[in-house]
């Protein structure tokens, strides 16, 4: 299956308060998804994510959960509700994948309820990351090339 969008690479935002985690995830995307993914933003807080999503359209967000200030869950809720932040309409239903060590069944249930589409455990396993990205992009209809 192709991960490409019909006309361009998938614009991915990654959000994690830990610089080492951001670096690991960036390198995984650069090495293993170079043909399909373009990293459009690397941010260290939910607040920064909300700010960026009010200005620039993205196709997918990989979001840490445990962050000071807004958690990944709170950030996701703010994106979906878009009441307190002027989130671009195009971003309000953007697929969001949790990337976290907080990956128990009860927590996954919370992520799903708040509007996240999948959860990838840390440390990140490449096959799981790949299937989560593919699944997320399949669900955001009509955005994948079928070739
Ligand atoms: Mg964290």
UniProtKB/TrEMBL annotation:
The modification 4-aspartylphosphate is found at residue 64. It comes from the Eukaryota. InterPro entries: CheY-like_superfamily, Sig_transdc_resp-reg_receiver. GO terms for biological process: phosphorelay signal transduction system. PROSITE patterns: RESPONSE_REGULATORY. Residues 11-137 form the Response regulatory domain. Keywords: Phosphoprotein, Two-component regulatory system. Gene3D superfamilies: 3.40.50.2300. Transmembrane segments: none annotated. Pfam families: Response_reg. The keyword Phosphoprotein applies. This is Sensitivity to red-light reduced protein.
């Amino acid at each position: 299956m192709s991960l490409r969008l019909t006309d361009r690479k998938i614009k991915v935002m990654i959000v994690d308060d830990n610089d080492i985690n951001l670096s690991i995830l960036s390198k995984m995307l650069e090495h293993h998804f170079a043909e399909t993914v373009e990293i459009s933003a690397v941010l260290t807080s939910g607040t920064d994510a909300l700010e960026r999503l009010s200005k620039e359209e993205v196709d997918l967000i990989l979001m840490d959960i445990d962050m000071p200030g807004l958690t990944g869950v709170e950030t996701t809720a703010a994106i979906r509700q878009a009441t307190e932040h002027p989130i671009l309409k195009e971003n309000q239903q953007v697929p969001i994948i949790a990337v976290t060590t907080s990956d128990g069944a009860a927590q996954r249930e919370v992520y799903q309820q708040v509007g996240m589409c999948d959860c990838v455990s840390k440390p990140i396993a490449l096959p799981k990351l790949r299937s989560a990205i593919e699944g997320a992009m399949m669900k955001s209809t009509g955005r994948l090339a079928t070739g």
